[in-house]
Design goal:
Elements: E1 4-8, E2 11-14, H1 32-54, H2 59-95, H3 97-117
Antiparallel strand pairs: 1-2
Helix pairs in contact: 1-2, 2-3
């Protein structure tokens, strides 16, 4: 019988004497509940914004809510980016090779998209 014992948040090692099996999880898994809660609040903000437009509320009030919604999304994006850099990119950099280069290029492109969007 093969058992699997977790050795870190994203690794698993078989204990039957065979070679270690590396199981990858996304870096945000540890904070998944927190991200889902934040996204649920953002979803509510978007519905509120929709309602404000539907009710023809004052433009500046709507723009204020748009700004708050963008800020909330930016917070989620920055958290995901930080998790990705701290886990996925760092792990790949330690391993080296093509995967490390790929993860760095992905992170660079993601940062570029976030910066251009601002």
């Amino acid at each position: 019988m093969t058992t699997v014992e977790p050795t870190a948040a994203h690794d698993a090692v078989e204990t039957d004497g065979k070679a270690p099996e590396h199981e990858h999880h996304h870096s945000y898994i540890c904070d998944k509940a927190r991200y889902l809660a934040r996204l649920k609040r953002i979803e509510g903000q978007a519905r509120g914004l929709h309602r404000m437009v539907d009710e023809e509320q004052y433009c500046i009030d709507i723009l204020t809510q748009v700004s708050a919604l963008k800020s909330a999304l930016d917070g989620v994006a920055m958290g995901l980016l930080e998790d990705h850099l701290q886990h996925c990119v760092l792990d790949a950099a330690r391993t080296g090779g093509a995967e490390a280069q790929e993860k760095l290029e992905e992170a660079t492109a993601a940062i570029g998209r976030l910066v251009r969007r601002s």
